[in-house]
Amino acid sequence: MSASSLATIRAQLQEERGRLRERLHELGLGADDALDFDGGFADSSQVTAERGEMEALAGTLNDTLREVEDALAKLDDGTYGRCEACEGPIPQARLEAKPAARLCIACASKSR
Q1: What are the structural domain ranges in the chain?
Q2: This prediction's pTM
C-alpha cells in the first residue's frame, strides 16, 4: 500500500476516533467506561429500557473505538493491513471501505 494511501487511512481513522470519543462523551461515559446518570434519573420501566439502550449503544461505540485505536497502533508498528486470523494481506479495497478491518474477507466470512 502506498504511503499516501496509508496517510489517508490514518487521517480517516483519527477522524473516526474523534467522532467516537465525542459521541461517548455526549452519552456521559465516564473514565470507568460506565455511563454517568444523574440522581434525578427516574426508575420507571420506560426509563430503565432507555437506559439499557444507552448502555448498549455506549458498548458498541466503545468496541468500535477500540478497533480504530488498534488499527492506528498497527499503522504505527507496521503491521497494518494483515489479517489477524490467516496473517495474509487484507486487500486495499477492503481497507479503504473499512479502515479498521481486522480480517480479510475470507476469514471474516468464516467467523460468521
Answers
A1: 3-81
A2: 0.79
